[in-house]
Design a protein that fits this description.
Layout lengths: L2 H12 L6 E8 L2 E9 L4 E9 L2 E12 L2 E10 L2 E10 L2 E11 L3 E2 L9 E2 L1 E11 L2 E12 L6 E5 L2 E2 L2 E6 L2 E7 L2 E7 L4 E6 L1 E2 L1 H12 L8 H7 L4
């Protein structure tokens, strides 16, 4: 199922008055923006789903978890690659971050019908936590599979691999973690990843402002210049 079809099905569900939702659709230049706000007694979800020239471009999500904790998520789609950033924050203070990489054909409809899609599989997910005014790496996993629950932890509680190889469903992963996360993905869609293990307070603030303001709609480049460029 294409990403555009997932978007269409989600928006169609949102317009059915089963849940407490508000929705609208508008055009902003080359962008076709569908806005859905869902508010129930458990949580608040705010989605902006964006097409550019009829193709999936980006998704923005804001979620209120209660007790003052919120999250901002930005996902971009380009040439079959899906890049995702999630920031946890309390007010203006960012407490955690997650960066994920998956593929457009690895997305699936949300069984709970609350999100436009979920990851059926993901190549890599990396979590960061705030410590001493910086954001440091706390967890890394490869080859997540929603159906089988398979995953390969590289950094987690009690696990600290500096170098590893893993093969799953025809995709080979080779990872090294020192001052940066360096991952080579071989298979149908080969790719090299080079992400930081630590981010400065200034870098985190730039990423937070990007996700909080409308600048995210113009592309991934502000995030890529921080997390993807080799130093």
């Amino acid at each position: 199922m294409s990403v555009e079809t997932l978007f269409d099905q989600y928006y169609e569900r949102a317009t059915i008055p089963v849940r407490n939702t508000k929705f609208n659709r508008n055009r902003q230049g080359v962008f076709d923006i569908r806005h859905v706000v869902e508010d129930d007694e458990f949580r608040q979800l705010n989605h902006k789903i964006v097409l550019k020239d009829g193709r999936a471009s980006s998704v923005w999500r804001e979620q209120d978890w209660g007790l003052g904790e919120n999250s901002l998520d930005v996902t971009h789609f380009e040439d079959g690659v899906v890049k995702h950033l999630s920031l946890r924050h309390t007010g203006d203070a960012v407490t955690g971050m997650k960066i994920s990489l998956t593929r457009a054909d690895w997305l699936m409809a949300d069984p709970d019908h609350r999100l436009p899609y979920i990851f059926a599989r993901a190549d890599i997910e990396a979590w960061y936590r705030t410590k001493d005014a910086k954001m440091g790496l706390s967890r890394v996993r490869l080859a997540w599979d929603y159906d089988t629950k398979h995953t390969f932890p590289v950094r987690d509680h009690g696990i600290s691999r500096n170098k590893a190889e893993h093969l799953y469903k025809g995709v080979e992963y080779r990872i090294e973690i020192e001052d940066r996360i360096r991952l080579t993905i071989d298979g149908k869609s080969p790719r090299d990843i080079d992400w930081p293990t630590e981010l400065t307070g200034d870098e985190v603030r730039i990423m937070f402002e990007y996700a909080r303001n409308e600048s995210w709609i113009d592309g991934w480049e502000p995030i890529g210049s921080i997390v993807e460029d080799k130093r």
